């Protein structure tokens, strides 16, 4: 095995272990805290004791805890999520369309902002002290530090309520009843609903990319290899392109991390805009104590982050020769 | 350390030192106009957080604004009776705004301090000892990274009645990972420096070396992340309250926004939306602007010639 392979094997093992621990934590939080998903049904008086027992045994809640744990681990790690308690549908058929809605909103937003804000960041880092630098830093500081639902509320008030350019709520008009993904997402009505949350998401993500790119270029600006390029007679823009290329790595890994976190959705953005994504669904499921749905959703979110983390680490180790691949990969 | 022999003189010296430290920081922040504006906003926020409930003209929850005829004044714009208008339930927006600053301040301050303190200690211990201690602590931070913060916080808050101290604990319990990683990587470079090695060689214990020799050198970055922690905690608290998982007995800015959103009055009642929304946005932005001014100084890698 080469050193890189050994590093890869170690990181893989850690990721698998992390997944197991994370899944166990979810189990513990859900089962050991007081409150039962059926309490709501019982107190509403719709069920008698026998029916409760039947449902409990159907969901395996009458078994000892360790047996529940074993069967839970077995099913969740094979992506068998079971039935949603309140929707009486397989959990996956509830979650899948919601997850798709979230990804269709956030992946394009993330890609857009990664390209635009990083380029802008490199440009202002090169022209340090310019008005554009100050302005872009203040505005992105505001956008990334303010909770996303507040930015969303400002945008709704301006563009939906006062200018009345776009609708404020939902993903499709109430009357629209499209069949299948293609029909849902390829329509003018959808585009109308899409613009505002998409813009807010782009702006919300922009700050970190802009600062990463700017700091990267600022760091490189005084370095020897750029002096050489200047001596060779390259133009300012050509020099910037080379400085920028050398500060791509943190941006790339940050992009991978963000991509993993996208599976959580932007809960608050989805709530404010009434976007039927996975984050909003999770909030609803938590409020209604729909355990199977909650544990499946949180599991998907955790898994995505773990995989993205792994990808980021491997990217870094692969591209950056100064990161040691033996030991802990610390730098 | 000769505090026992001349306690008074030593005390004066310390007070002097603190005074000049404060004066230096103030002078530094004056140079950066943005950071200075941030300081003013944060100052006003702390003032409102401490004295707001006393300044509020009415009780934010109990008191109902009425017009001359005695009927409840619902959703009225700013008038003489209610300077910032009223809510859909006839409550005074100004009073709610002033009283709502306190929970925001408490969670922000203690959540931030907790985040900074835990993260600093974990990073220091992890980086200083290395080996299996480092491995265990860093895998623990990986775990908190992989468990999504917002969903886990929501879950924990459904099982227990939320109160602000619990929220503070949950927020700090999830956010410490950020400073921990940064502090650790700073410690890794500091511990290789000569003065640390000579302290070890002259017989200083691990504990002493860690806190007296390594600690102070990574303290600035710890403070920086404590400040960011404050902003994160304020944002997290507002977000949780907005989703309806806040302390039900207290008015906070996030809860005000939830009420206006839930009651469906966002379209008309701008006087009800703007005070809490602008309040939160201004405070979090200001904290970041102050932090950024320090970051330019602390982070050695972006200190090239201007």
TrEMBL record, chain A:
Family: Belongs to the binding-protein-dependent transport system permease family.
Every ABC transmembrane type-1 domain range: 99-312
Name the record gives this protein: Peptide ABC transporter permease
One Pfam family, short name: BPD_transp_1_N
GO annotations of cellular component type: plasma membrane
Transmembrane residue ranges: 12-33, 103-126, 147-170, 190-213, 251-273, 293-319
Record keyword Iron present: no
UniProt entry keywords in alphabetical sequence: Cell membrane, Membrane, Transmembrane, Transmembrane helix, Transport
One annotated GO biological process: transmembrane transport
Highest taxon of the lineage: Archaea
Keyword Transport attached: yes
From TrEMBL, chain B:
Keywords for the protein's UniProt record, in alphabetical order: Cell membrane, Membrane, Transmembrane, Transmembrane helix, Transport
GO cellular component: plasma membrane
Domain of life: Archaea
Subcellular location: Cell membrane
Family annotation (PROSITE patterns): ABC_TM1
SUPFAM superfamilies attached to this UniProt entry: MetI-like
Membrane-crossing residue ranges in chain numbering: 34-56, 105-129, 149-176, 218-245, 269-290
Domain ABC transmembrane type-1, residue spans: 101-291
Entry membrane topology: Multi-pass membrane protein
Biological processes, Gene Ontology terms: transmembrane transport
Residues of the signal peptide: none
Family: Belongs to the binding-protein-dependent transport system permease family.
Protein name: Peptide ABC transporter permease
Species annotation: Haloarcula pellucida
